[in-house]
C-alpha cells in the first residue's frame, strides 16, 4: 500500500484545507476533494486485492471481541 501514500497525502491536504477554509465557515459542500478520495480509495482497494487482504479481515469489532474485554492477569 506504499504506492498509495502520495495519494493519501494529497487527499489529506485537500481535506484539511476544505475543513478549515470551508466547513468551519459554514460551507458543507464536500465535493472539492471527492475525486482525490475516490482515487485514493481505489488505490487502497487495489493494494488490498493484490495482497489478498479482504475487508472483513480488518473490520474487527473490538467491543464484541471477548479477548479485548478481559483484564490482564
UniProtKB/TrEMBL annotation:
Keywords: Disulfide bond. It holds the Pfam family UPF0203. One of its GO terms (molecular function) is phosphatidic acid transfer activity. InterPro entries: MDM35_apoptosis. PROSITE patterns: CHCH. It comes from the Eukaryota. It catalyses: a 1,2-diacyl-sn-glycero-3-phosphate(in) = a 1,2-diacyl-sn-glycero-3-phosphate(out). One of its GO terms (biological process) is phospholipid translocation. GO terms for cellular component: cytosol; mitochondrial intermembrane space; nucleus. Coiled coil: none annotated. Belongs to the TRIAP1/MDM35 family. This is TP53-regulated inhibitor of apoptosis 1. The lineage of its organism: Eukaryota, Metazoa, Ecdysozoa, Arthropoda, Hexapoda.
Amino acid at each position: 500500500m506504499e504506492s498509495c501514500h502520495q495519494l493519501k497525502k494529497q487527499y489529506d491536504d485537500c481535506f484539511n484545507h476544505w475543513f478549515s477554509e470551508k466547513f468551519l465557515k459554514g460551507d458543507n459542500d464536500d465535493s472539492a476533494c471527492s475525486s482525490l478520495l475516490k482515487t485514493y480509495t481505489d488505490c487502497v482497494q487495489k493494494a488490498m486485492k493484490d495482497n489478498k487482504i479482504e475487508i472483513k479481515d480488518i473490520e474487527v469489532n473490538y467491543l464484541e471481541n471477548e479477548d479485548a474485554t478481559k483484564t490482564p492477569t
